[in-house]
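thought: fold this chain, then report.
action: predict
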Amino acid sequence: MVQLNEQLIELLDRRAARAGVSRSQIIRDAIEAYLTSDRQAAIDRQIVDGYTRTPQTGEYDADDWGDLGPLVTALTVAQQRRLSDEERAAGFEPW
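observation:
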């Protein structure tokens, strides 16, 4: 059970009437949106933490021999060019 003041009840009732749903549905939707937002914020913090611990600066793109970063970059460029050529040959418009 949740206690609400008259002003909140009035606002809820107006919103429910506009949406054509019950007051309870508006409250459920609001709680779900709040919790989803909270969960998304936690995921965002984890992503930022991961990139803070392991920045994508190229510094970590090398293997023990020091050549993985350039190799991966070259492969990626070559793969993108091949994909672009395949798409054009198939009749797709370029990006």
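thought: worth noting. The mean pLDDT is 82.
final: tokens above.
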